[in-house]
Write a structure and sequence with these properties.
The chain is of the alpha+beta class. It contains four helices and nine strands, in the order H-E-E-E-E-E-E-E-E-H-E-H-H.
Length: 133
């Protein structure tokens, strides 16, 4: 078992929930703190705001918020009228939220399809999620 797998195993994932979300036109969704958050933009674009940080997201982008910070996902400014976006969003609760790994991770991890292109499992997961959502 590699080091990262061992650390994740030690954090003891207790519960996770995922949902497909579809938005059209100007939209905004607030997520409260309390659990590790994950978003994958399946289609379209979105803007993530968490505190002072802001990220423009496009199809295929993955965002992980390991420190359970409150955040907002919304349509991009000046988006064409009727533009739609689809996301797979999830929350994960761990039995060991004080694990040392959480203290060294950045509050927001943003990965683009280019950064993830060498991971064939992500590409397969993204395509399967697009078909199911």
């Amino acid at each position: 078992m590699d080091l990262m797998s061992k650390a994740i195993d030690e954090m003891r994932l207790r519960h996770s929930t995922y949902q497909c979300e579809a938005f059209k036109g100007p939209w905004s969704m607030d997520y409260q703190s309390g659990a590790c958050g994950i978003h994958i933009v399946l289609d379209g674009r979105a803007l993530l705001r968490a505190g002072a940080a802001s990220f423009r997201l496009a199809a295929g982008d993955l965002v992980l918020l390991p420190l359970s910070s409150a955040h907002t996902m919304k349509s991009v400014e000046r988006a064409p009228r009727g533009e739609s976006s689809r996301m797979l969003s999830g929350l994960c609760d761990f039995d060991a939220p004080d694990h040392p790994l959480f203290s060294v991770l950045p509050p927001i991890i943003h990965a683009t399809p280019v950064q993830l292109q060498d991971n064939p499992r992500y590409g397969t997961y993204l395509e399967n999620s697009r078909k199911r959502c």
